[in-house]
Design brief:
The chain is mostly helical. Helix content is 73%, strand content 0%. It contains 25 helices and no strands.
């Protein structure tokens, strides 16, 4: 592929994400007048077009390889090379099947998230029913067949003709068709009444639920299935993260430790969104740490891409921005030389691109009444509140693992001070500040078990570090 073609691939990945989650999904449908909705829609278009143009221009100087390289051969190769991990993940998934069929708790967040996807489908079905006497479920099935035709050309044909090749030859017609589709959706949705569920959480989780309901049917298992997938992928990328600077055996031990943590087991079969949050934390960390190690442009672009996508899944992923900025400063900017200015502006430009899908949602949700994250410094004045999550560790992971964690932290601070330990210790501290500063913690003075789950990647890495070091030492002794 030429450099222009590669740059176009990068541009389309970002631009499609922005358009899909803000314009195709009606994030602009606020409780304001019709004229103001039109204005918001136009402003979003302008914002994304301007920043899309800037990204295309900035990225041209650095692009060297394709953005996404996913193939069956690479997946099967990974499974063959890591059979133990694959077997453990298969057993872990099998053990989650039974609790995934248990009834959903009424009145809690699990029921709320389960109903979010149904709410979107109900609205779509009502609007389509005004024009076509057909259930949207079947329209979606037809759409899936069409997408398969787009991405899998008819291989038996001697000319290799397929819809994908047709789009490539008629790209301007295809773009015009997408714009017309967006305008049709805009006209249909424009005068709908605002419903609060639309903005209570960002759009990615809602669309995941809607998509799985349409592929299958809304049952307890289907509601919880995405979280199991997120947990399995989180373990895989935690393994890959530790493998960046340590032995593969230690990486395997970290992944196994992660899967054995009580919070991981619980949330893998729960319909709340926390397994997805932990997955995005690990995924963003993997690409960012790989960028710090190799300095490749592609890894940093993937970091900011999944940062935006993760935030549009759930807002706690915002904590990754100060973490990334801190490590960029400490590892990349401290060396002041001739390339200092170039590095500084490189990161400044692409961090801004990473903020493009984040800023509009932060602005839009300020128009929506409801709970927003509010910090309270009073939490830190009371030792009982300031230390509440630390005091809960023996209960949430067990007394033995809590003691091992403390020993491991001391070991990493004194002897194992590599960048992996420093990164995940900083992540642990930032998450602790975030959850401990929550106003609702001051009000109710009890921890949120789901927030404590965010510590699990750091806990798994530190616990596995000291245990693996001890086992290695014992093995070396005659």
């Amino acid at each position: 592929m030429t450099k222009t073609a590669l740059n176009r691939e990068y541009f389309l990945a970002f631009f499609i994400m922005w358009i899909f989650f803000y314009l195709f999904f009606p994030s602009w449908l606020l409780p304001v007048s019709t004229a103001n909705r039109v204005l918001i829609y136009v402003v979003l278009w302008a914002f994304f077009l301007v920043n899309g143009g800037l990204f295309y221009k900035w990225n041209m100087s650095y692009v060297e390889e394709g953005l996404f390289k996913i193939s069956k051969s690479r997946i099967f190769s990974f499974i063959r090379e890591n059979r133990i991990l694959a077997i453990v993940l298969l057993l872990f998934s099998a053990l989650q099947v039974y609790p995934m069929f248990m009834p959903i708790r009424t009145g809690g967040d699990e029921a709320y998230h389960a109903d979010n996807g149904l709410e979107i489908l109900r609205v779509i079905n009502i609007k389509i029913g005004q024009f076509l006497p057909i259930d949207f479920h079947w329209i979606f099935k037809l759409l899936i067949v069409s997408l398969i035709a787009i991405f899998i050309p008819i291989r038996r044909s001697k000319t290799k003709f397929g819809i994908a090749s047709f789009i490539k030859k008629n790209k301007y017609l295809f773009i015009a068709s997408l714009v017309i589709l967006l305008l049709i959706i805009f006209i249909i949705v424009l005068k709908l009444p605002h419903f609060p569920r639309l903005h209570r959480f960002p759009p990615v989780s809602k669309l995941i639920h809607s998509f799985t309901y349409l592929l299958f049917f809304p049952t307890e298992f289907v509601v919880r299935f995405p979280q199991l997938i997120f947990t399995v992928l989180a373990a895989v990328f935690l393994f890959k993260t530790v493998s960046l600077c340590r032995e593969r055996r230690e990486a395997l031990f970290a992944a196994l430790t992660f899967l054995c943590l009580p919070s991981v087991i619980y949330f893998a079969s729960d319909g709340e969104l926390e397994a997805g949050v932990v997955f995005f934390i690990i995924l963003i960390s993997y690409f960012f740490l790989r960028h710090l190690k190799s300095g490749t442009h592609k890894d940093f672009i993937l970091t900011i891409f999944f940062l935006g996508l993760g935030f549009l899944y759930k807002r706690p992923l915002l904590i990754m921005i100060p973490l990334i900025c801190f490590f960029l400063f400490s590892r990349r900017f401290m060396k002041v030389d001739k390339s200092f200015q170039e590095r500084f502006f490189y990161y400044l430009k692409f961090i801004w691109i990473g903020l493009v899908p984040i800023i509009p949602w932060l602005v839009i949700t300020r128009f929506i009444p409801g709970r927003h994250y509010t910090s309270s410094m009073k939490n830190w004045y009371d030792p009982n509140i300031a230390l509440i999550y630390l005091k809960d560790l023996p209960k949430s992971i067990g007394l033995f693992l809590a003691l091992v964690l403390i020993i491991s932290l001391i070991y990493c601070l004194i002897w194992k001070r590599d960048w992996l330990s420093k990164y995940y210790l900083t992540l642990f501290l930032l998450i602790y500040v975030l959850v401990t500063s929550d106003y609702w913690l001051y009000r109710f003075q009890r921890i949120e078990f789901r927030f404590a789950y965010y510590f699990s990647p750091s806990i798994a890495i530190f616990v596995s570090t000291i245990i693996f070091a001890c086992l290695k030492k014992l093995k070396e002794e005659p």
